[in-house]
């Protein structure tokens, strides 16, 4: 029998009943109810908690480091309970020490965070804003060093493998590509009658420049001059942020709706009410929103940002990233062609069902585990 535990800091994930959650509490300084404030002054009594508090208060993001130290302390005591540790892109010094001194350990790196930092630098206008970007992403230097300590690294696309190898100065032979799967329990074609006309949908899981939502909003503003169009954005913009201000500036607040956070069970309903799904990202290490839309049987328009062409294949229309005019052209083309919409919807669904299965992903990850454990024992 295989036993899996998940070690997590807050916010804690919801897990299958057969998976044990081991909670690794921190100060939870990003919780909206006590933002940047510890629950009690006594919480600052330990050096690690004080380090976390001071770094958050000065604009850094210390959680990868502090989480890694807590995990190292726990697993050093409980290493005999486990065969291997799978790190989800924490890449902290503590995780690195596990790999070198304690037990077989490997990470999944979804995409190089250096790309996020580059895009945020481009958006930052003032010296103060640029410094804040530098300060926030200061953990990257740690991740670049720690990534070199692993003999095996899982990543989610061939494109990302090459990008990470370049950004982290790593040999590509260390990487094993395992595509993400899509949960068909939540993402499936759910249709009650014909789809609405002129209705677009986009998932904006993170209100960051990298997601390219600003270019889609510009495209919607242009399209509505010629024909009716509506856009549903799954997500919520930052208060008084770039996206919220752009919606007002473009005068599209009457045709753009933000859903806020939704439950997994609601995704299929929203996709069923959409004519076309759009993924306007500048870069994706994989592109889960694209695969989820295809799994719901929605015709897809995607940029060529990052690994998106690898995910979409020929099952959608691909346009250049950061190009509102190209989005306008592709959206108008599909809105005017029911035949093409049907073709891409069927092709997308078939592609997801054949390529992006969690069962397939699990089998491939298990094989990497065997490789890493065998390699660790040989080197010990």
Describe the structure.
The protein is an alpha/beta fold. It has two domains: 199 residues, Glycogen Phosphorylase B (Rossmann fold), CATH 3.40.50.2000; 157 residues, Rossmann fold (3-Layer(aba) Sandwich), CATH 3.40.50. 44% of the residues lie in helices and 12% in strands. Strands 9-8-7-10-11-12 form a six-stranded parallel β-sheet, with helices on both faces. The longest helix has 22 residues. The protein is globular. The mean pLDDT is 94.
Helix tally equals 15
* Highest CATH level, the class of the largest domain: Alpha Beta
* N-end to C-end Cα span: 26 Å
Question: Structural class, judged by helices and strands?
Answer: alpha/beta
Largest sheet: 6 strands, parallel
Strand content bin: 5-15%
The CATH topology of the largest domain is Rossmann fold
Share of helix among residues? 40-55%
CATH architecture field of the largest domain: 3-Layer(aba) Sandwich
How are helices and strands ordered from N to C?
EEHHEHEHHHEHEEHEHEHEHEHEHHH
Q: What are its keywords?
A:
380 residues, 12 strands, six-stranded parallel β-sheet, alpha/beta, Rossmann fold, 15 helices, 2 domains, two-stranded parallel sheet
Question: Can you give me a brief rundown of this structure?
Answer:
With 380 residues, the chain is α/β, with parallel strands linked by helices. The protein is built from 15 helices and 12 strands.
């Amino acid at each position: 029998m295989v036993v899996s535990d998940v070690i997590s800091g807050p916010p804690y994930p919801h897990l299958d009943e057969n998976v044990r959650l081991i909670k690794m509490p921190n100060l939870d300084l990003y919780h909206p109810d006590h933002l940047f404030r510890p629950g009690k002054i006594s919480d600052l009594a330990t050096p690690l908690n004080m380090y976390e508090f001071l770094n958050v208060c000065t604009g850094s993001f210390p959680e990868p480091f502090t989480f890694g130290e807590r995990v190292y302390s726990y697993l050093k005591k409980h290493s005999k309970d486990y065969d291997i540790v799978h790190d989800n892109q924490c890449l902290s010094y503590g995780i690195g020490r596990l790999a070198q001194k304690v037990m077989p350990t490997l990470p999944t790196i979804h995409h190089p965070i250096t790309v996020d930092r580059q895009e945020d630098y481009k958006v930052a206008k003032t010296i103060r804003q640029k410094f804040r970007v530098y300060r926030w992403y200061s953990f990257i230097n740690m991740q670049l060093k720690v990534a070199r300590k692993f003999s095996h690294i899982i990543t989610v696309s061939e494109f990302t493998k090459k990008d990470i190898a370049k950004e982290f100065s790593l040999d590509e032979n260390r990487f094993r590509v395992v595509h993400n799967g899509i949960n068909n329990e939540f993402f499936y074609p759910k249709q009650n009658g014909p789809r609405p006309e002129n209705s677009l949908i986009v998932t904006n899981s993170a209100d960051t420049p990298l997601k390219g939502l600003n270019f889609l909003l510009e495209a919607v503003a242009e399209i509505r001059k010629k024909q009716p169009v509506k856009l549903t954005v799954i997500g919520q913009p930052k208060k008084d942020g770039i996206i919220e201000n752009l919606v007002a500036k473009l005068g599209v607040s009457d045709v753009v709706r933000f859903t806020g956070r939704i439950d997994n069970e609601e995704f299929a309903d929203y996709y069923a009410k959409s004519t076309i799904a759009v993924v306007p990202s500048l870069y994706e290490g994989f592109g889960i929103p694209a695969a989820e839309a295809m799994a719901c049987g929605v015709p897809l328009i995607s940029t060529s940002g990052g690994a998106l062409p690898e995910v979409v294949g020929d099952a959608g229309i691909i346009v250049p990233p950061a190009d509102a005019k190209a989005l306008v052209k592709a959206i108008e083309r599909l809105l005017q062609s029911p035949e093409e919409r049907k073709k891409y919807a069927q092709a997308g669904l078939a592609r997801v069902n054949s390529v992006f299965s969690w069962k397939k992903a699990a089998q491939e990850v298990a094989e990497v585990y065997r490789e890493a454990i065998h390699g660790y024992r040989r080197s010990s």
